[in-house]
Amino acid sequence: VGDNRDKLTTQFQRSWQQQEAQLATLDAEFIAAVIEQEDFNAMYYDPLTLLPRKAFYGKLLKMLEGKPLALVLTSADLDNFKLLNDCWSHAHGDSAIMQAADCIYEHCEAFNAGQSDVVCVPFRFGGDEFVMAFISHEGADFKQIKDLS
């Protein structure tokens, strides 16, 4: 149907509107969860994905400063994401970002569970951009990073 929603069935249009309404309430639900957890600093976490955001990356760099640790970064984004936002809706784009973030988080957690000397920390850098920071002792072999893919 391209960008013409009028071509959708009435039932699908209602379903679409319900999905957009549910996605619009996510920020309010996130804020309520943050208020309940006083030790959770919302400044460091993305409200859409709940992954750490750029501000946390800056904090991480300061925490690593002067320590004998190595840092390797890898980045990813969603292919043709603008097309999704332009032809469907921003709510559907948000849904795609949340699904990608969930997948990235699950893979990082699985990677961390199988490692003893490298830790993977996923970040949402903005829009559809994600970064994974791999942290280990200086001189560590980072060949196991390919296991994450």
Automatic annotation (TrEMBL):
Residues 69-149 form the GGDEF domain. It holds the Pfam family GGDEF. One of its GO terms (molecular function) is diguanylate cyclase activity. PANTHER family: DIGUANYLATE CYCLASE DGCM-RELATED (PTHR45138:SF9), REGULATORY COMPONENTS OF SENSORY TRANSDUCTION SYSTEM (PTHR45138). One of its GO terms (cellular component) is plasma membrane. GO terms for biological process: cell adhesion involved in single-species biofilm formation. This is GGDEF domain-containing protein. It comes from Effrenium voratum. The lineage of its organism: Eukaryota, Sar, Alveolata, Dinophyceae, Suessiales.
